[in-house]
Amino acid sequence: MANPSQLYLLADHIKLSLLERQRAISLNLEPSAQDGNISRSLESMREGIEATEAEAARLEAKGDAAFSNLQDQATRLRTQFEDLTSQFRGFPTSSASTITQPNTPALESDFASAKNTRPRNISKSVRFTDNPSVDPQEEANRAALFPYRDEPNEPPDQSHLDNQQIHEYHRDVLRQQDEQLDRLGESIGRQRDLSIQIGDELDEHVQMLDDVDEHVDRHQRRLDGARRSLGKVARKANDNRQMVAIIILVIVLVLLIIIFK
């Protein structure tokens, strides 16, 4: 994005986002919902400024007189970028009016609304027009600006919208993302409760297994005692058999002595 007009339009959208962020802070709301979009927009603006500066250097090397105007615009854009970055990071800025002054006069009403810190009823503010009057150069700038998207699904074509409609569209996108995050948080909470219940059931099963192991050990000890008792009985029975055999042999011997006398 090396067109300065596109960069000025991108800077205006960053300014509006920062004003909305400041307004959310003044109303004690959480401002971090737009931080990711602002960071990505600032990064796109930085890359565009670097491309503009490179183009100005190339024209200067060729001796083209157009480099002077392009270099001046790149310097002004660089100043705005540094001020906007400082505003976003919470650092002091060289010009406090940078964020409140639009580059595009058509966005003055948006800036005036964004600077108002009182709560507004958005539903009563009709911001769409049936026949938006858009400068052809601004329409070309928007067509070049909006192909860069982070969403995996292709969003609706925005090249036919004016600046106010684009700003309103992005606010609706942010609101939908907040609702999706809320639903995701609820789902995570349910998963957490389910995990706790599964953990409790696992603890109960572990206790049951411990009880079973204790019963098995107790019965094993009883079986070992019974096996030892049977061994003693078997040894005694073996000793008795030997005694009976000796008695029988003595009786046979006595009988033989009597017979052969």
Notes on the structure:
The protein has 261 residues and is an all-alpha fold. The chain contains 6 helices and no strands. It has helices at residues 4-26, 35-62, 67-89, 108-115, 136-145, 163-260. The longest helix is centred in the last third of the chain and has 98 residues, at 163-260. The protein is rod-shaped.
Q: Which properties best describe this structure?
A:
single chain; 261 residues; mainly alpha; 6 helices; 0% strand; rod-shaped
What is the secondary structure topology, with strand pairs?
Layout: H1 4-26, H2 35-62, H3 67-89, H4 108-115, H5 136-145, H6 163-260
Short description:
The chain has helices at residues 4-26, 35-62, 67-89, 108-115, 136-145, 163-260.
By DSSP (H or I, 4+ residues per run), the number of helices equals 6
Helix content: over 70%
Cα Rg? 45 Å
Largest sheet: none
Order of helices and strands: HHHHHH
Q: In whole angstroms, how far apart are the ends?
A: 139 Å
Q: Uncertain spans, ≥5 residues at pLDDT below 50?
A: 119-131, 148-152
SS strand fraction? under 5%
Assembly state of the chains shown: single chain
Give average pLDDT, whole number.
76
> How does the helix and strand content classify structurally?
mainly alpha
Number of strands: 0
The 3D shape can be described as: rod-shaped
